[in-house]
Amino acid sequence: MSFEGVTTFLAVAETLSFTKAATRLGIAKSAASRRVADLEDALGVRLLHRTTRKLHLTDAGAEYAAQARRAVGVLNDANEAVRDRGDAARGRVRITAPADLGATYLPSVLQSFRRKYPEISIDAVLASRRVDLVAEGIDLALRFGALEDSSLVARKIATASSYFVASPAYVARRGVPATLADLAAHDVVLFRAPRGTLRVELESCDRRGQTEAVELRAMLTGDDLSFVHRAALDGAGLALLPWFLVAPYVESGRLVQVLPRYRARGADGHLVYPSSRLLSKRVALLIEHLLAELKALRAEPSDRAPRANANAKAKS
Q1: Which H/E stretch holds residue 57?
Q2: 160 burial class (0-12, 13-18, 19+ CB within 10 angstroms)?
Q3: What angle do CA 262, 268, 272 make, to 5 degrees?
Q4: Which residues pair with 92 in a beta bridge?
Q5: Banded model confidence at residue 24, pLDDT cuts 50, 70, 90
Q6: Distance (Å, whole) CA 211 – CA 21
Q7: CA angle 237-202-210, nearest 5°?
Q8: Half-sphere exposure (CA, 13 Å, Cβ side) for 10?
Q9: If you ran DSSP here, which 8-state letter would residue 105 be given?
């Protein structure tokens, strides 16, 4: 059996289309069909159910695709490892990240990486869904939350604590809450609170370890952090947002921090990559670059120089 037959079958298995697989591989549809047929003949088993409208993997085809994908991945890693023995770092790295973070920090960080290594290209996949790194050929992922896949190697980069912020216009119009109880009298914009309420555990920054539960009631909710962020900038109300997302806006004065004593401890963020793959030189270089450059993800307000905040302004 030929290696081309295996890779063609994997492309068909992923797209469930000879036409799409052929386009991806840059070959004719008839050539793709012939390669898969030759592979089935060599194996003595049918891998695909073909109808006039759809393709389906057989049970044997699904099992073979899973095993072959891992084998092809190992072979590709071996090829890249040999190429990496040269002095120049080159090739492509595919990285995935949450859309909010990708739009905020990754463009400038990846551009600074490319200035250092111009022969390495970057393909950024920004998505709210959990991307399957192996199945989709992703080299590296930036993830927040529990790491359920034990086959991944993880390097922690941050804990995404969230703080209350509001626009200067909202503060001028409605004032600022002095205590957590005052939140009930304010408009609040929440992330992922479909029923309009969200119970959060808030940690006191000046009394580490002590927490207080509060139920927030929202006038506006969204399932995307960028939406909540934009709404806060537009003066819709108070928002509880990750510090890495709002820090530049607090620094510039476009947002002000309120109730600065409190934060909601968020999920840990990690750089992760499949343990089944050899770590290529270009991926290792990007990991080290990201660990050095994504400092804003590890920063907290207490790490910065003291600034006037909305509560302090209200008392002056």
Answers
A1: strand 55-57
A2: buried
A3: 160
A4: 121
A5: confident
A6: 54
A7: 155
A8: 21
A9: T
What does the mean pLDDT of the chain come to?
Answer: 83
If you count them, how many residues does the chain have? 316
Side by side, the strands of the sheet bearing 197-204 are 211-217, 197-204, 262-263
Residue 232 CB neighbour total at 10 angstroms: 27
- Is 101's pLDDT higher than 80? no
Q: Tell which phi-psi region holds residue 16, choosing left (phi > 0), alpha (psi between -120 and 50) or beta.
A: left
- pLDDT reading at 178 higher than 90: yes
Long-range contacts: 223-231, Cβ < 8 Å, 24+?
A: 223/191, 223/192, 223/194, 224/99, 224/100, 224/128, 224/191, 225/98, 225/100, 225/191, 226/99, 226/100, 226/103, 228/189, 228/190, 228/191, 229/100, 231/189
88 CB neighbour count, 10 Å cutoff: 12
User: Quick one: tokens of 154?
Assistant: 């993880």
